[in-house]
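User: I'm new to structure prediction. If I give you an amino acid sequence, what do you actually give back? Let's try with this one:
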Amino acid sequence: MKKRLLAFMMAAVLAFAVTACGEPKDVENPTEAASGESEVTVGSEVEKFINVDLPSISADREKAVSLYNDYFKNPGSLDSEEWLRALKNDGLYYFDQYLENLNKFEYTTAEVKSLQSTYLQSAQYQRDAIGYVVSGIEEGDDTMFDKAEESIAQSETYFSTYEDLLKTVCQDNNITINGAISTSTDAE
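Assistant: Good question. You get back a string of structure tokens that encode the predicted 3D arrangement of the chain. For your 188 residues, that looks like this:
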């Protein structure tokens, strides 16, 4: 079981690194800048979602993912029981805070509501994966690791859908993304 757990964890670390917190570096809507209007538009809401809202809550998610990844980045620095306690007590707490705050954002345009919903689903599956790992370790139940793997795969699917949807919304609304869509763990 320990070999299976380690193999799963290594795969999960890579999945978390790939599907972390996707957000373009900067979003602009040139037609809105010229008009100077403060009217709520798809462009203004995309800009708010990407440049203001997601970055404002990213610290909680980064703390949770960091706790998850710490065990593998610094082998031997944490024993498995200490890591499990940190993951259970802090990691899940931070991720729950992140999801709660992500769910609180309110938008008026259908396009940005859809972006938010898809992004939220991806994040929820990541959180579920951490929960399954915790349960699997505590209960010694290998099926929980299978569920965690399924959750990571679902998270990746929703994140890919989010990226495609973002690109479509930007193209349809003449919104420019300055910089590549990146993840919060690209540099790590």
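You can read the tokens as a compact description of the fold. Here is one thing that stands out. DSSP finds six helices and two strands in the chain.
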